[in-house]
Amino acid sequence: MHIKTNKKTGSLNAAALFLPLAMGLVAPTTAQEDEEPADEWFVLQGGDVHTGTGAVLRGASVLSKNGKIDEIGYDLYIPEEAEILDVAGYRVYPGLVAIESRGLFGGSSDLANSVDPFSKNMVLALSAGVTTARNGSEVAKLRAGHIDGLVLTSGVLPGLSYSKSNPSGKRTLRQKFEVAVQYLEVYAQWEIDKKSDKELKEPSDKGVDSSILRYLRGEARPVFSASTRTDLLEIARLAQRFGFRPIINGCQEGWIVADELGRAGASAIITARDRSTKGEELVRTGGSSIENAAILHRAGVSVTIIPSSAGISLGGIVGRDLMHLTIEAGFAVRGGLSEKAALDGITIEPARLLGVESRVGSIEVGKDADMIVTDGDILHYQTFVQWAVVSGEVVYDKEAELFFAHIRPRPKSALSPEERVDAGETEDEEIEEDSDDSDSSDEGGEEGDDKGDGTFRP
Amino acid sequence: MVSSSRILAVATFVAALTVASAPALETPGEQGLVLLARKVVTGSFEGDGVINNGAVVIRGGLIEAVGPRTDVAIPEGYRVEDLGDLWITPGMIDLHCHVAMGMQDLSESAYLTNPGMRASVGIIPGNTNLLNAVAGGVTSVLHIPGSATNMGGQGVLLRTAPRAFEDALIRDPGSLKLAQAGNPERRAPWNPRRSFMNYNTRSTFRRGVAYAKRWAEFEAGTGEKPDRDLQFDIFRSLYKGEAQVSTHTQIYQVVLMTLTMVAENFKLPVYIDHGTFDGWRAAAKAQELGVAAILGPRGITNGMNSPGFASYDQDGAIFGVAAQYQKLGHQRVGFNTDCVGPLGRGIAQEELGLQASMGVRYGFDNSEPYGVRGVTSVPAEAAGLDDRLGRVLPGLEADLVISTGDPTDPRCSVERVYQAGRLVYNTATQTRRF
Prior knowledge:
heterodimer, A: 458 residues, alpha/beta, Urease, subunit C, domain 1, 3 domains, nine-stranded mixed sheet, five-stranded parallel sheet, globular, B: 434 residues, eight-stranded mixed sheet, 12 helices, 24% strand, disordered N terminus
């Protein structure tokens, strides 16, 4: 155990009141409504913090206040009531973001009203480092144990189709873009003209596709599922002609037309190990390539990585489901993608595609305190997530769950023996035995808080 | 012929350009080759498992010497190539796959036991799956019949790169494929159950071993020449230890049946394939009998999703299968893919290394390079090929993988592959396939 708390008796009442309030289990009484809930402080202390912004802070601390990152660095002022997780010797990364997921939340498409916060798959996804995931058109946090505060946004990744397999559909979509572009030109002119003539009527958007207007205005980005070089080239040209930024899911032959996709400002969602053969009848380059992610990235296409299965698979075959998101990223590295870009591809890049980059995807002040603590390089196959923190709260602890606790059990803090003495189970028991004594020390008081403040007091 | 000292000087000069100026694909010449690498993982259980700053000397398709580069003498006239930070490991060996031909031709189910059938008759050497295997560092495979029946027939050991069958062939018969249980129940024309399957399999073994003994007696001059029976000829190879029984077996009772029936009762060379679900519970017995465990592709097992026939209670824990064998003292744990061929289905042939790294992820001790051994020397030994393949050792064939690091790490790419001293894959001159 590494968690210790510094709460003093004075903060007990507020904390005790706030907890049931936050969980929505107890209706507040009138008298209590006036009281401000106490701030919730949480510190990841002394880890090597890989912020995801390029900076790595060795032995630094991340302080969060009410679920948001408040400060990152050294010698931080830690409020007395803060909960501290000592992670010296471990690495801290931003929680991973799954651009696609299935079955993590134990609910239907309406997550806010159907989530199962005790879902086994949610815990397993957390064990793989995933703290945010798209479920259908919603994006939610894996806030295990909570029924509130999960859904970040909805209506994400609106789909479009533009493929040579559907020529009339292509024609129709192009026409819609043309209509929308004309409307925007008329609208822009109206905005100028109305300055001199206030009576001028706003142009009607009747017959104009509202989604396409959003894409053209840069308010949303459409996602295409496309993999052949022909379709990819067509999409790139469409995007360049009308001026929007496409997201392409699959993108297997993207490496062949990478420059075009780069010029179109495209983003790609890729499974690094995707395999497809070049048609024998094709004389030019075709099919999948392990270098796809690397080549696209070099061409300026932002790369998001997802395994071939976005669910949790316990059938036994390992390495290709969401529990192995980092492994898939590793295969992108095999094809030449830098480790930084690979990590981006499972953190900040998917966060951007989902429009939640202001909340998650990197460790920055003001963002949600969603972080994972690992025992090694996140992209190494042997690395395990030791703790996952969502909204400034530990929601996964490898040692506390049944699944992986037995695999390379966490040493009892070999790197900071003092902390171990402070927070160790054995010490707790001893204190418990001693608790009848009247001389329960200050140290004992601090310890005791772990099991509900006051338990060990005389 | 240029003098070796001059070659050395040139080699030093060219070192920085190594990758760009790497030779095109070549045939093994009489000229020897010295490869200098950051690490050489020998695959061997004895001696130095890892040689830092190593040198490997190869000539005529064989490894002549291996050791720290300061200790290895460079023979006159040998070309020296410094691979910089790259690693050299033995070519990987997959003892369970179905990639050398279409599956539709592979699973014969004329009888419940078909020991006479041969997978070698329909091989397509150098097919896409096999070439991808090369790019994953997999140099040899045991291509076996499926498990529609208890004995699907004989597997064949193949090299992955050659385009011609004669060049690809390592050994035929490579194995007798036994599927102890787990598939024949569903796939055989009727639905046999375990009691009858075991009875019938045992009966086939008994007849086969009796047949082999008659031939052994004849060959020793103590018996009459028996009639040739193609159904049982494979047992002559098994009896002499020239081939093994490769067994689709998983679940504790089934693995136990493999061990007692094949190894203990009939004393035939055998190894475990799959070995999953709670098959690890028989690990100590397997170790005692010297039966290698070639595990996969199911790398983890848990009580939650285990099928009805394997209901060992793990109290929620997810076990690494390889880790459990190791924990119970098994010392010859290897990995397979069970690749079924067509792209996008099952495990790809080139992902054999991943099976090992996933084993390590889920608890298999890798403090020694057990992961690499599990895909090189362990399968070589299990298949009786350890005098030819599976280690970087003088006298063995030069099947070498040149990679950017631990070849089982998904992040590390294979840059070159040598098969019997022949450079068969080189990313400097060829498209990277994996």
